[in-house]
Amino acid sequence: MKEEKRLSLGEAVTQFLAHLSPTDREKAQPEVFKFVRWYGADRLFSEITIPEIANYAEQVAVSSPEPLKKLEPVKSFLSYARKGGLIKTNLAVHLRVRKVPSRFAPTLKQLPQTPVSLTRQGYTDLEAELIALRQERPRIAEELRRAAADKDFRENAPLEAAREYQGQIEARIRALESILNSATVMEEKKIGASKANVGDTVLLRDFASDEKVRYTLVSPSEANPMAGKISIVSPIGKAMVGREIGETVEVLTPAGVLRYQIEDIVQQ
After folding, report:
1. By C-alpha distance, which of 39, 52, 43 is closest to 11?
2. Nearest-angstrom CA–CA distance, 207 and 6
3. What is the dihedral of CA 187, 190, 196, 202, to 10 degrees?
4. What pLDDT score does 268 carry?
5. Looking at the whole model, is its pTM more than 0.85?
6. Do residue 153 and residue 212 come from a single domain?
């Protein structure tokens, strides 16, 4: 048992990835490695606490448009660790994104019409998404019609699923309409402006691994980490805004401070 209690997070992850198929390993590895890097590979697995797990879920929720998808590989890792006896506590159940009950959610009229600044590409992307969602309405209506034709409403799962999906689509449509109606498109910056800002693509070099990563700074409405678009309110985004080529930026994580050097700024 002593060996298990002193197992490091990095060692535990190595065991987890080794038991996966090559395909599953390739899918899980990026997110699991991010989790390990956040706390440090040398951190004792037994020292990870429930509040830390909950805080990690919150951090992913504010920095990713698809937090549940991002957290799934990490949740699988924590479940594997519990079942395999690597940890005593079921930490996986605490890795969740909080949802506000609908009865407490503000109505559309109560939502403040806060103006947002979007890049020209970001405005175009959101506009295209809105058009695509509006075009979904006839198909969803047809699914509802077919599901409602089943008169046994007591166990009509397809009807409930169609209604839930329709609600999600309509909510997204309203959100996009609100954003686009109040948005301002940023003007092209003059050549020679040297500080990183919204719309710029920043090339960073990680001091620890010498790895180079490229991020585009965008407003929270445009954030899409899968496409390399980082919100300016995320920890890394905040650290980059207003900085110049050659400067060192630092991002605070539970494992310590991650340090990057800005190698290049490609401005909008």
Report:
1. 43
2. 28
3. 90
4. 62
5. no
6. no
